[in-house]
Amino acid sequence: GEDVEQSLFLSVREGDSSVINCTYTDSSSTYLYWYKQEPGAGLQLLTYIFSNMDMKQDQRLTVLLNKKDKHLSLRIADTQTGDSAIYFCAGGARRKLIFGQGTELSVKP
Amino acid sequence: DTEVTQTPKHLVMGMTNKKSLKCEQHMGHRAMYWYKQKAKKPPELMFVYSYEKLSINESVPSRFSPECPNSSLLNLHLHALQPEDSALYLCASSQRGDSYNEQFFGPGTRLTVL
């Protein structure tokens, strides 16, 4: 079945760029999503990319998709302390979203 | 209105209690979902309703009983829960019940079972 993997932790300094990586196994995922979850809150949809795209930019967020390697990344430019959260990538497969384990981003002032 | 709302925010219940969680959306979405999430883990899908019919049940124990009274409302009825059922319960909705639609999540209900 579909499997989605992420590294568990990332620590950056305020103002630096953050890059969160994700790999997936099911090449039939048509859309790939990035969600953000702050402590005690629900999941917030940040952005998504269609599988026939290589890149999508949305203000400080850049999503890169390498279909050959089944690798997805989320770059956050000028990372702020308010970006501290858990970031989940998710792929659509067989009517479900399959989530990665989540990457906990810690932003140090 | 682009929001999914959930009530209550917090719920504490004993193992013999019966309670219900409520979820509402007014985005005209035709699919609604229940997820269970443990701390710092990804959400686990429990149920999917598509056009008010139950389309996916991920082998959830019968002490959890979902209900979709109309396309805007989703309930989760709880009875005889166990302490290991303590978790954040998230509701989500999407335009349609397939994997091609982004899902929008509510803030969740934090459930504690004593």
Q: Structural class, from secondary structure content of chain B?
A: mainly beta
Low-confidence stretches of chain A: none
Query: What is the molecular shape of chain A?
Result: globular
Helices and strands of chain A: which structural class? mainly beta
Key descriptive features of the protein:
heterodimer, A: 109 residues, mainly beta, 6-stranded mixed β-sheet, 11 strands, globular, B: 114 residues, 7-stranded mixed β-sheet, 4-stranded antiparallel β-sheet
Explain briefly what this protein structure is:
With 109 residues, chain A is mostly beta strands.
Description:
- The complex is a heterodimer of chains A (109) and B (114).
- Chain A is an all-beta fold and 109 residues long.
- Chain A has strands at 4-6, 9-13, 18-24, 31-37, 43-50, 55-58, 61-66, 71-76, 85-93, 96-99, 103-108.
- In chain A, the strands form two sheets. In chain A, strands 2, 4, 5, 9, 10 and 11 form a six-stranded mixed beta sheet that branches. A five-stranded antiparallel beta sheet of chain A has the order 1-3-8-7-6, with no helix packed on it.
- In chain A, a hairpin with a 2-residue loop joins strand 9 and strand 10 (96-99).
- With 114 residues, chain B is mainly β.
- Chain B has no helices and eleven strands.
- In chain B, the strands form two sheets. In chain B, strands 2, 4, 5, 6, 9, 10 and 11 form a seven-stranded mixed beta sheet that branches. In chain B, strands 1-3-8-7 form a four-stranded antiparallel beta sheet, with no helix packed on it.
- The radius of gyration of chain B is 13 Å and the shape is globular.
- The mean pLDDT of chain B is 94.
- The interface between A and B is medium-sized, with 26 and 24 residues.
